[in-house]
Amino acid sequence: MITAQIGLVPASANWGSYVVQWVAPSAYTHAVIAVNETVCWSYEPGREGARLRPISDYPGVVWSRFRYTREQRRIIVEYAYRMIGARYGWADYLLTGLSLITHVSSAARVGRQDRTVCSQAAVNALRIAGITLQLGGRTRVATPADLGRYWHEQGWATTS
């Protein structure tokens, strides 16, 4: 069952993927949350912000394998539904990139619940469900690279 699991989407040939790879090199450039077995929640730039998409839109996605309780699964899915329409956190994106490039800590504003980036939203959903990841990232906002390293450490992915 993949409902409530976090998926890491492999890098693809689009401008957003190139930018993410340049700032935080990783085999993954996007994170999604499965709200059921065929649909996932995706936090994306653009006017629509967070939205639901068919999982088939993301070929090669690598799913987490958390052993959730029924309650944790419910909390994560509810979080995803509550966040539909939330605007993408461009400030988080830019400040995280600057932090990674300059090695200077990102501003305290980064990591808001109401407007952030895909990978941090996934971490927020887990945290609300009582699961805290030790990512060891260099910024206050989790990146796909941070999650990729964690997936690799857990044996869920062969690349990070």
Bin the helical content: 25-40%
- Mean pLDDT across every amino acid position: 80
The biggest beta sheet, please? 5 strands, antiparallel
Task: List unreliable stretches of 5+ residues.
Answer: 107-112
What is the N-to-C succession of helices and strands? EHEEEEHHHH
Which keywords apply here?
160 residues, alpha+beta, endopeptidase fold (from Nostoc punctiforme), 5-stranded antiparallel sheet, 5 helices, globular
Element layout with pairings:
Blueprint (H helix, E strand, L loop, with lengths): L5 E5 L4 H9 L4 E7 L4 E4 L8 E4 L7 E2 L6 H13 L7 H13 L15 H11 L15 H11 L6
Antiparallel strand pairs: 1-2, 1-5, 2-3, 3-4
Structure explained in plain terms:
This protein is an alpha+beta fold and 160 residues long. It has a single domain, classed as endopeptidase fold (from Nostoc punctiforme), CATH 3.90.1720. It is 36% helix and 14% strand. The chain has five helices and five strands; from the N terminus they run βαββββαααα. It has helices spanning 15-23, 70-82, 90-102, 118-128, 144-154; strands spanning 6-10, 28-34, 39-42, 51-54, 62-63. A five-stranded antiparallel β-sheet has the order 4-3-2-1-5. A hairpin with a 4-residue loop joins β2 (28-34) and β3 (39-42). The chain starts with 5 loop residues before the first strand and ends in a 6-residue tail after the last helix. The model is unreliable at 107-112 (pLDDT under 50).
